[in-house]
Amino acid sequence: MTVDRAKLAEFLRRSRERLRPEEVGLVVGPRRRTPGLRREELAQLAGVSADYVMRLEQARGPQPSTQLLAALARALRLSEDERDHLYLLAGHRPPAGSGAGHEVRPALRYLLDRLGDTPAQLVTDLGDLLAQNALADALFGCVCEIGERDRNIMWRWFTDPRMRALYRVEDHDQLGRELVADLRAAAAHRGYDQPATALIERLEAASEQFTALWHRHEVALRRGHRVSVVHPTVGPIEFDFEVLQTQATDQRLRLFTPPPESASIEALELLRNVGPETAHRSHE
Known about the structure:
The chain has 13 helices and five strands. The chain has helices at 5-18, 39-46, 50-57, 66-75, 80-89, 106-114, 134-140, 153-159, 161-164, 172-189, 194-206, 208-214, 263-274, and strands at 120-124, 129-132, 225-231, 235-245, 251-257. Helix 2 (39-46) crosses helix 3 (50-57), helix 2 (39-46) packs across helix 4 (66-75) and helix 4 packs antiparallel against helix 5.
């Protein structure tokens, strides 16, 4: 990424001019004519020299460091979106946004329940299953009897044969590679924090196949693609699988929609009529 010095200079100047001195605890004298902060005041708040601020606003000087950008963002009282914009203009990747962890917002739970014709799941970026609607229960089975620590899609894929049995054998290798590549992308985005590291170590201890795939160092976020689920009651169902980013950076909405005018629409309707209570019962 390269620095856009002209736009960075303009953004810093406009942000400084919009910020009133009293908003940052400065006393305004009767003869003050500057509508916003002075360069010297911004420099003092950010812990840098006034000359450095001047050079940035004149589109001169070296590329600002991430530490300096963080100080400027705090001093200018930038919102998260404005902070990210500042980083991008300066040629840096923005810091990770706020995460929701395992908390499910009421609006997302409501949305899951309203998607009555579409299997839908809410998962973390590491694959922890947080919630799913009734049709997803019927499709994949209820996880109510699985311990919370094991409600991870990655963990179940590499340790639970019942999870793999829901997919065609010829697709297993590709699905496994996609899952591991997605986990590596998520772990890197998190900076290999404690939850990501703990999951990776647990998987390496439990699965030689995971370990082999992990050391291939493939990286790719899972996005939309075609997937076939082999349901024990209604048989194969083909889906267009989509992954949507939620407001929280560490949660994703997974949707399984049948292709238009396909036999999978009828199969999904049959599954909906069977219901989650009986869909997997006779095959447990």
